Amino acid sequence: MLDSLITTFVSTYSIPVLIVLPVVIAVICFVVGNITLSRIVSVVSGIFLVITCLLQAGYVLQQTAAIELVVGNWQPPLGIRLSVNEFSAIMLLMTSTIGLAITFYSTKYFNSDDKEVRFWPLWWFLITALNGIFISSDIFNTYIMLELLGLTAVSLIAIQGTQQALQASFQYLLVGLFGSLMYLLGVAIIYRTYGVLDNQLIANMVENNLSMQLALVLITLGMMMKCALFPLHFWLPSAHSNASAPVSAMLSALVVKAAFFILFTFWFEILTAVVTTAAVTVMGIFGAMAVIYGSYRAFTSPRLKQLIAYSTVAQIGYLFLAFPLMIATPELARTAVIYFIVAHGCAKAAMFLAAGVIQKTMGHDQLSQLQGIATKLPLSIFIFAVTSASLIGLPPSGGFIAKWLLLNNAVEADQWWWVLTLFIGGLLASAYLFRVLNLAFTTPENKDGSEEKFHTVSMVSESKLLGAVGLSIITIVIGLNAMWLTNLITSSY
Amino acid sequence: MSTLLKSHRQAIEKAIIVGLVVTFIITLLLALFNQPVHDNSLQALAVADINQTGVTNIVTAVLLNYRAYDTFIEFSVFLCVAIAVLPYILEVPVVKFQLHTESQVLLIAKAFIPLTIVMAGYLLWIGSSKPGGAFQAAALLAGCLVLLSLANVRVIDFTKLGYRLLMSSGVLAFSVAILLFYLESQAFIKFPVELAGASILAIEFFATFAIALILFLCFESINKGHA
């Protein structure tokens, strides 16, 4: 009885819920303009979305079949097809889970009503856009979702209101628009050639010719900009470090991953006929350079949030290391990519949330003045340490398994040289993250007045970090239950 | 070498950009000339099913029936812009508006606004069979509001809940239609044939006001938002 109910819910209702619910909540939050109500509605529907995605992911991974929905019963090429396969099911589950953690955090984060009243509707539109990208199976619909994603992300950075935030968001707006237009031009070329927009239909028709090569190059450049792959990462550190903590967490954990998801789909599902070994190797090299450059810049950053933002640049690089492996061992590489996205998403979101508490308590995030905060903010530093372990790749965290999968994969595909990047990246990550932890546990020197100043900031509630604790537990749990998760992912191909 | 690079930095940058653009254009032209255009079978498909969409204009059929999902998200994009540029949500700073009686702009406004509103209504109505529709009608209405604003007549107080409701009415009407038809037929964004025309007109009606307000808001936020 319950089983059949769940099956009906998942197969007919779960996909529309992912879009319609966030939009309706966004409109409610905007129209009512009442913060208390927005908070309650957001937390409740956040929980509901997590349950929906959980059921959906369970269904997709168990049935090993994608859920499909044709909008308006207009079959493609006329209409739009939405589908949830194992990759998108896991992305959706991750979006809703991290979203819930950040939602909970945001109910206690803002100290200005005007900021918060804008935050909630934009927040729900951002979740709409992310869900929309993960379920879309139509290249033009993906463009619309990208537009919504870009505009909400820019607005969310801008509501911070500081000079740097406004500058960063304007730069992000221009970069985002440029990336979207490149993508749109690529879509236009594909449509001109084949006259269809559905992923599956294009994949069946596509041939290796100059038009498709150009389309892939344009789409790749556009998405590289949006997911900040070295050397097009220049906008990310200022955008992610100047936004408010919940927004930074969402941008680093999910928004860049959405662009990566699109890129990955185009390379290995839609325009597969065009992809050559040379092309994937180039992407791999960009990835390797991103790992090293991002880690180096993280190491030299003077500010905590900037350090974390550069760490995102580095971690995005790892995802592209899987590109050259996709040709030789596609299943292993896909599993590694999915695993890495989840591990990094949870860890990075939790880390940004902890950094937000540190910044709020201290009034700044200058690394040189963060000595001894471990005694004042034990929970924040605990979260920072756990998530650091995952980002470095220490067992038993999810990050360790993700890197181990990549490593195993590189050896299996006879491309051992990528392993070097993994090692160097891991070492550099431990260098820049221990730099923070080391400072946090150092007792500050007693200078005149410094002691007193320290006491004034001691009374801070860390209760809003509950969600972040949940996320750091997830990073450990997915490390401990690695076999179960990888089997689920691999068996569903 | 490095001094040479520094002193000619701008020239070098320009050269690189020109080089990239030229390469891109040549590749694009080559690609386009090498590949035939698709056979346009999609248009035939769209025309074949048009009597089930509730409208006779093919553009409206694509926008609000075949690919209504895209339009739904497009309305959300509009609303999201409105939230971002809305200068004040909770309370409005005290700004004095004086009505200059019989300023020339006001004269023009008085003469044109009634006419423009009628035109907007016509454009909205004709959208089902000929070029027209919510976006065009909204542009006209927004023009009226801009004219009034230039004449220093304050018509809209964006801090009022009612106007926020009106701004989201496009998305809201669309959501209601989606939910009602979904519960009835279990199909996502499927208008029943006999109700399709009416529902599309209703959605477009609300969307017209929403888009007009949002366009006007964008104008106001530049014009007076930072005063």
Please give the domain count of chain B. 1
Q: How much helix, percentage-wise, in residues of chain A? A: over 70%
Q: Over the alpha carbons, how many angstroms does the gyration radius of chain B reach? A: 24 Å
CA distance, first residue to last residue of chain A = 29 Å
Q: Estimate the helix proportion of chain B, in percent.
A: over 70%
Distance between the termini of chain B: 51 Å
List keywords for this structure.
heterodimer, A: 493 residues, mainly alpha, two-stranded antiparallel sheet, 20 helices, 2% strand, B: 227 residues, 10 helices
Tell me what the structure shows.
The complex is a heterodimer of chains A (493) and B (227). Chain A has helices at 2-32, 35-63, 86-106, 113-135, 139-158, 163-194, 199-205, 210-226, 236-242, 245-270, 277-300, 304-328, 330-362, 373-376, 378-392, 398-412, 417-441, 450-456, 466-480, 482-491, and strands at 67-70, 81-84. With 493 residues, chain A is mostly helical. Chain A has a domain at 326-493. Chain A is globular. Chain B has 227 residues and is mainly α. Chain B has one domain. Helices cover 71% and strands 0% of the residues of chain B. In chain B, helix 4 crosses helix 5 and helix 9 (169-185) packs antiparallel against helix 10. Chains A and B meet through helix 1, helix 4, helix 5, helix 6 and helix 8 of A and helix 2, helix 3, helix 5, helix 8 and helix 9 of B.
Brief digest:
Chain B: Keywords: Cell membrane, Membrane, Transmembrane, Transmembrane helix. With 493 residues, chain A is mainly α.
